[in-house]
Amino acid sequence: MRGKPARRIATGLLTALSVGIMVAGPGARPALAATCKGYTCHGRDPVIYSCAISSSQSGSDDLVTLWLRQSVGCNSYWARAQLSAKAIADHYTMEVAVDTTDVKGQEEYMCYPGPGNTGDLREYCTGNYGGPLPAYTDMVDGSYTVALAIVYVFTPSGHIYEEDSI
């Protein structure tokens, strides 16, 4: 963790996902077959690789909402976060990340904003995001049932305000 101690929405590692969410909306396209699975999904964009959300766990406070998403079809996880209207009005920014150990025993870490869809084991943030739309990371291997979603929220001066994880 960078900076001073931070508040947490939830703590610990995720060992089981139990909230089922299906994503569909106006103009939604039919689901395409997943084009990666498990280890081959690391560093890949879940939308580009047609990895449908099977389940999602979330936590929120007055500044941010954080999700850890899982695709059973792709055997993968990714993180998604969205700043609240209050955080945006107060010019806060964020970084969102997902971390796990893959089937080969290697750490996989993806962060947004940063490089996207690289296929690398690790993608580190290259800045902060302060927009109104949700932001999401590339995927990590879902072969183990342990993954950690993390969001760092920064003040306008760039100091970390909070770190939340699920």
Layout of secondary structure:
Layout (H helix, E strand, L loop, with lengths): L54 E6 L3 E8 L4 E8 L1 H5 L3 E9 L5 E6 L9 E2 L11 E2 L3 E2 L6 E7 L5 E6 L1
Molecular structure report:
- The protein is mainly β.
- It has one domain (38-165).
- It contains one helix and ten strands.
- The strands form two sheets. Strands 1, 2, 3, 7 and 8 form a five-stranded antiparallel sheet that branches.
- A hairpin with a 5-residue loop joins strand 9 (148-154) and strand 10.
- The two termini are 15 Å apart.
- The model is unreliable at 1-30 (pLDDT under 50).
How would you concisely characterize the structure shown here?
This protein has 166 residues and is mainly beta. The chain has one domain (38-165). The chain is 3% helix and 34% strand.
* Number of separate helices: 1
**How many strand units?**
10
Kindly report the average pLDDT value. Answer: 83
- Overall shape: elongated
- Evaluate the radius of gyration: 15 Å
Helix proportion range: under 10%
State the end-to-end distance: 15 Å
Q: What amount of the residues lies in strands?
A: 25-35%
Q: What structural class is derived from the secondary structure elements?
A: mainly beta
Q: Write down the secondary-structure element order.
A: EEEHEEEEEEE
Q: Give the total of domains.
A: 1
Biggest pleated sheet: 5 strands, antiparallel
Oligomer: single chain
Unreliable spans:
1-30
